[in-house]
Amino acid sequence: MKKDLESPNEAHSLLNEILEEVRRNPTPLNYWNAYRRIRKLNLSDKGIPENKKVKIAVLSSFTVDPLVVYLDIKTRLAGLYPKIYVAPFNQYPQEIMDKKSQLYIFDPDVIIIAVQAESLLNEDFLPNFTQISDDEKREKEKEVINHLKNLISILTSRTDGLVLVNNFIVPWFSPLGILDNKEEIGYRRFFQELNEVLTEIYRENRQVYVVDLESLASKHGKSRCINYKMYYRGSIALSESFLPVVADEYAAYIKALKNLTRKCIVLDLDNVLWGGILGEEGFDGIKLGDSPEGEAYVDFQRLLLSYYNRGVILAINSKNNREDALKVIREHPNMILREKNFAAMRINWRDKVENMISLAEELNIGLDSMIFIDDSPQERERMRQALPQVYVLDLPPSPFEYCESLKSINDLNTLTLSEEDKRRGEMYYARRKRMELMKSIRSLEDFLRSLNIAVEIKYADSFSIPRITSLINRTNQFNLTTRRYTQAEVEKMSSQPDKYLIYSMRVADKFGDEGIVGVAIVKKEEKEWVIDSFLLSCRVIGRKVETALLAKIIEDARKSGVFILIGEYIPTSKNEPASSFYRDHGFEMIEKKGNMIRWRLDLKRATVKTPEWMRVTYG
Amino acid sequence: MVSPEKKLKEILSKVLLLEEAEINDDVSRKDVESWDSLAHLMLINEVESAFGVFLSDEDTVEIDTIGDLKRKLRKLGVKI
């Protein structure tokens, strides 16, 4: 009955087999079966890269083992290797308060707090609700909120892990019946207020996120959220149909935390942005507005535009005559998305896989951050097979379902969103224009001069920290050490100016303002400063702005009487563009520590100058 | 239509991680490592949904072998 394990490789191929089974047929029974079989594999995490590991702790007022089943499998399906710790049944307060509890020993990256309001209210709360005064209700609200707030503040003082706290499901039932909203605090209002207060407390917090369980429950249908058989027999508060929905939501946060965020949606045109085949129906024959299907395509474009406006990059990959398609994009009265909304376009008769690769190159992003939307099952299958890193959406056959299908993708999330992020689409368009200019000018230096580059370097402050954090976590190519920090960690460093300096760099040129695109973190030691992190958004690679940032660090070091600057480089599969940075700026290689290479610049003998054609200001 | 036997076998094999060949009436909770209390709960829930029956607290506790489970189902009118 018990299979003994074999080699780690064999275990991993078995793991993939099990996951493939549940991916194809995601029934509750198969999730359970997959979870239990994987546990028996006794997988070791040797050789698994740090950025793919995630430690999740679940603190709850009910039995969460079934939730763990889904959480484990969903995070594995996202390419992660989870370790999950479940605190003993309903002992989350003790676990949080006791400094030496298993929770802190486990040292989680993510802490899920799933507490039902019911467990914090007396058993006679529902029976007596219609009898108690508004003051008493307010008192109760305070009690519930303070209980959570106090525990969370202890928790966040002891760990840097991301805290996900569920809000409360507003009951669909009220003992007041149809008069529920005629009371000052009706039964449903009571729970709604709890949710509002909870949301407000953590609105600006970058370590604690309130998971909107209430919205998920509404979407799922509140009467389907509990399976009372499991509830009474096993204190299992979420039904088997609701569990995967909840686990997906947690997975969205976890994917954002682990930088598995997708940045770009690549779209086919015919039967995706409009109905019909342009080459057959012609400009006037395609369905776009003015008919039931036509309206559905317009709405789909509106939804895409809302993604664009929050920073998702849009691109086109379509088999069409380029000029005909461009005419529709530019001139069709009902088009919502226009040329400026697309960061790059491949409208041709080439293989879509080939187009996809060249889009990734042009946009300077990984295939693993792209989503492909195409109505043809054959094209989708081809893409899946050739480029498994690309997320291929299973677009439903009817355009009426397109919007719902797109909304279900939870891979586009980030934990912070700055003004720069929201303007990303615009910046890519400027970039395309810049590249056109570059082709027309002969030498690189002439080109750079003609851009009128202006750089502003500042120390991190509360305005820039969200953007700085987002760059730290998303930049892969020009990133010397690829060290990831959470916003809480960045804030902590920034509050210790005697130990750390955090720089942000803003870059603009005649085509537009790129916003903050460079970050450096310097660790101050007694005799030397160490550049812990140095990174540049791929949007500005090749404009020599990194030299300006380095020059500023050197200037600061000199002013502090420090004359040794240490640079660190940790190679990854993606950061080759940064490999010669220190050598190019006159540093000497001094040592290799593991896979890290350390470089040294003696400021008494050498320095770095900003190119004279670049305008630099310091904030 | 899938026969009740086949349906039950599938549930048993998936919930308890058993090969179909290992499944017989004498297999009991103490023989099967993965037949813990949560698995038992899953098993009862799956069986109830699959056959449209309700197992009482007493039934749930009394099921110790696969044979017991079948007897309970027969009592509830399932032809197995």
Notes on the structure:
The complex is a heterodimer of chains A (619) and B (80). With 619 residues, chain A is an alpha/beta fold. Chain A is built from 25 helices and 19 strands. In chain A, the strands form 3 sheets. In chain A, strands 11, 12, 13, 14, 15, 16, 17, 18 and 19 form a 9-stranded mixed sheet that branches. A 5-stranded parallel sheet of chain A has the order 2-1-3-4-5, covered by helices on one side. In chain A, β1, α3 (65-77) and β2 (81-86) form a beta-alpha-beta unit. Chain A is globular, with a radius of gyration of 27 Å. In chain A, 40% of the residues are buried. Residues 1-5 of chain A have low confidence and may be disordered. Chain B has 80 residues and is an all-alpha fold. Chain B is 55% helix and 0% strand. Chain B contains 4 helices and no strands. In chain B, α1 (4-16) packs antiparallel against α2. Classes of the chains: A alpha/beta (619), B mainly alpha (80). Chain A binds chain B through residues 1-2, 29-30, 32-33, 36-37, 40, 65-66, 227, 229-230, 233-234, 236, 240, and chain B through 11, 14-15, 17-18, 22, 32-34, 37-39, 41-42, 44-46, 48, 60.
Low-confidence stretches of chain A: 1-5
Number of helices of chain A: 25
Measured between the Cα atoms of the first and last residue of chain A, the distance is 69 Å
What is Rg of chain A?
A: 27 Å
What overall geometry of chain B do the principal axes of the alpha carbons give?
Answer: globular
Oligomer: heterodimer
Number of strands of chain A: 19
| Rg over alpha carbons of chain B | 11 Å
Rough shape of chain A? globular
Major sheet description of chain B: none
Q: What is the residue-averaged pLDDT of chain B?
A: 91
What fraction strand of chain A?
Answer: 15-25%
Tell how many strands the DSSP assignment of chain B holds.
0
**Overall pLDDT confidence of chain A:** 91
Overall SS class of chain B: mainly alpha
Number of helices of chain B: 4
Q: Largest beta sheet of chain A, briefly? A: 9 strands, mixed
Largest interface: A-B, 18 and 19 residues
